[in-house]
Write a structure and sequence with these properties.
mainly alpha; Growth Hormone, Chain: A; globular
Length: about 425
């Protein structure tokens, strides 16, 4: 247990861990309620895709600027600012919903617009917050902090949607948004209570554009970083779109309603938490490429099975596997990236990570919504699962096998 949670020996990370756990429960409640509200008001799979696009496209366009800000300015203050902005947007959405301003198909576009504004906040928050981890725990405990950070994100993914599923049925979507706004107070107070050593930033003579390109060139010139990021980007583009379709599967295919949606999202979240904790227990981080290949393959197979399942308990079990494997792949990729990057480039490299992981999701959301409109959600998700599986096999044979050959050749030469 001490190995699994060793990053919690740092006081600042203890505060961060507790604050994020409360806040992220609210975030997942809001995300679930927004998806459900858009689908309830429009009954449109295509608009679910538009919602996902609006929420994620700012990361594709602006994450590099967020990384640049994180490398030039105080990361601690930057995270406080982004959390405060997200809190204000949650309260605005709650007010509009509770007062009845959002009640028809036109109101769904208001929900989508606010999701777009939240996406702008996230475009700055994600790279700054990821780069901020090293200031709280140091480089030695950074891999464990990455895994634990992933575990609280996905732990909230278990609790938040489950609460939202029941709250939507009992008191409506607006109160989910309000509770999310309140939950941000926990992380803001935790951040304000931190005691951090002063960090000196090296002055840079590069222009903002040159500075941004420097981070991208570093990521693409490093073979392990580039290969892992490309596969994660492929998973994000296609595989993680299952979450966009969950309202359709929960309501129309599996007949579970709002409570069923919460249970499906929570099942994936339970798997994700266990995947993150399993990764956190590792003290040796060799062989990460093999882990990435194996978990990506598991995810592709799981998506294929889920797309064809018509049994609720089987769908929950498969989403558990998908959540476990996708989270381990994300944590392993994040560890590879952060372990190989110099600190002066950390914010910009994490912006590349955010762009290739979260930034491609809006493109996938539009693609998923458009294809599902023509052939239906189950067939669309099945095809996406096959493509994820194909990408995993390419990574296995073109990257993992090539990495093993020099080791095997050296062992033979030694013998």
């Amino acid at each position: 247990m001490s190995t699994r949670f060793r990053a919690l020996q740092h006081r600042n990370f203890q505060l961060f861990f507790a604050g994020q756990l409360v806040s992220l429960v609210g975030t997942w409640m809001q995300s679930t309620a927004q998806l459900w509200l858009v689908y309830k008001l429009t009954n449109s799979a295509a608009l679910l895709g538009v919602f996902g696009f609006a929420n994620q496209v700012p990361i594709l366009l602006l994450a590099s600027i967020g990384g640049y800000v994180g490398d030039r300015y105080n990361r601690h203050r930057g995270v406080i600012a982004t959390q405060a902005a997200a809190m204000i947007l949650a309260f605005v959405l709650a007010a509009l919903t509770l007062t009845g301003a959002i009640h028809d198909a036109r109101g769904a576009w208001v929900v989508i617009f606010i999701a777009f504004l939240v996406g702008i906040v996230n475009a700055f928050d994600v790279p700054i917050r990821q780069a901020f981890l090293v200031q709280m725990v140091g480089k030695e405990d950074l891999p464990n902090a990455i895994a634990l950070n992933s575990s609280i994100f996905n732990g909230a993914r278990v609790v938040g949607p489950a609460i939202a599923g029941f709250a939507i049925a009992w008191i409506g979507e607006g109160w989910c948004f309000f509770l999310n706004g309140v939950s941000f107070l926990a992380v803001i107070l935790a951040l304000l209570a931190m005691r951090l050593p002063a960090v000196t930033r090296k002055p840079s003579t590069d222009s903002p554009l040159q500075s941004l390109m420097q981070g991208f060139r570093f990521a693409m010139s490093d073979v392990p970083i580039r290969s892992a990021l490309l596969l994660l980007s492929w998973l994000s583009l296609l595989g993680l779109q299952y979450s966009v379709f969950l309202p359709i599967f929960a309501n129309d295919i599996l007949r579970g309603g709002a409570r069923g949606l919460g249970l499906l999202m929570s099942s994936a979240g339970v798997g994700a938490v266990l995947g993150a904790l399993h990764f956190a227990a590792r003290t040796e981080f060799k062989g990460l490429a093999r882990w990435i290949a194996a978990t990506s393959t598991m995810c592709g197979i799981g998506l294929i099975v889920f797309s064809q399942s018509r049994v609720f308990w089987l769908s929950m079990a498969v989403l558990f596997v998908v959540g476990f494997s996708a989270t381990v792949q994300m944590a392993a990729t994040n560890t590879i990236v952060q372990s190989r990057v110099p600190d002066e480039l950390r914010g910009r490299i994490m912006a590349v990570y955010a762009t290739m992981f979260m930034g491609v999701q809006p493109i996938g959301s539009l693609l998923a919504g458009g294809v599902a409109k023509r052939i239906g959600a189950p067939y669309t998700l099945g095809i996406f699962g096959l493509l994820v599986l194909a990408g995993s096999l390419v990574f296995l044979f073109r990257v993992v096998m090539r990495l093993r050959r020099p080791v095997e050749a050296a062992a033979t030469h030694t013998d």
